[in-house]
Amino acid sequence: MFVVEQACPYPELDGRDSLPGTEHVWVDDGAGPTAYLRVLDEPDGALRIGRVCTRRDARGRGLAALLLADVLARADRAQRAVVLDAQSYLVPFYTGRGFVATGAEFVEDGIPHVPMRRETAGSGGQGSVATNSGRRVSFTVILVAMPSVPSEPTKNPVRS
After folding, report:
1. 81, 88, 76: which is closest to 115 by C-alpha?
2. Average pLDDT, the chain
3. Which phi and psi angles does 71 have, rounded to 5°?
4. Distance between CA atoms of 62 and 135, rounded to whole angstroms?
5. Fold of 23-145
6. Above 50 in pLDDT, residue 54?
7. Taking residues 145-150, what's their average pLDDT?
8. Which residues pair with 49 in a beta bridge?
């Protein structure tokens, strides 16, 4: 989506997709992934949300809000702040979810962005998400967390 729809030709892999602690979160339907976001660990302990996107035919159903609510609930339980660089037209969307602007607007790949931060809400991760249309949506949230790399090889691998 970023390369084609937003004309941002950059390498997809920035070296952070497979770092320990990186999470890839998406919603899936019968046709495949419908919405996606990535969560990174920041050096200051915050979580960084990025690469939020929704498949064109699935837009307007509140799926990005669903993914965001999942990440924010887990961040609240872990007492971790969340940061992101919002496309400027989405600042009201993120403000409505507790984010505040933390800096001036900047342009990345020709698209205006605003840095934002949300401190932990302390709600224990409880909340709800409504779709834009008010309809119920069947979904599966899939979370893939990159495993931590042990500092020394282990002789007994963890089995699930």
Report:
1. 88
2. 78
3. -65, -45
4. 10
5. Aminopeptidase (3.40.630)
6. yes
7. 43
8. 39, 84
CA–CA dist 108, 81 (Å, integer): 23
pLDDT band at 10; cut points 50, 70, 90: low
Tokens of 131: 């779709």
Length of the chain: 160
DSSP 8-state symbol, 141:
E
Tokens describing residue 14 = 């920035």
85 contacts 113 by C-beta, under 8 angstroms = yes
What region, left, alpha or beta, does residue 12 occupy, with left being phi > 0 and alpha being psi -120 to 50 degrees? alpha
Helix (H) or strand (E) holding 83: strand 82-87
- What is the C-alpha R_g of the chain? 17
The two tokens of residue 12 are 């997809």
pTM for the model stands at 0.71
Q: What is the DSSP string of 124-137?
A: TT------TTS---
| Rounded Cα gap, residues 34 and 159, in angstroms | 31
CA 84 to CA 116: how far, in whole Å?
Answer: 5
Q: What are the residue boundaries of the structural domains of the chain, listed by start?
A: 23-145
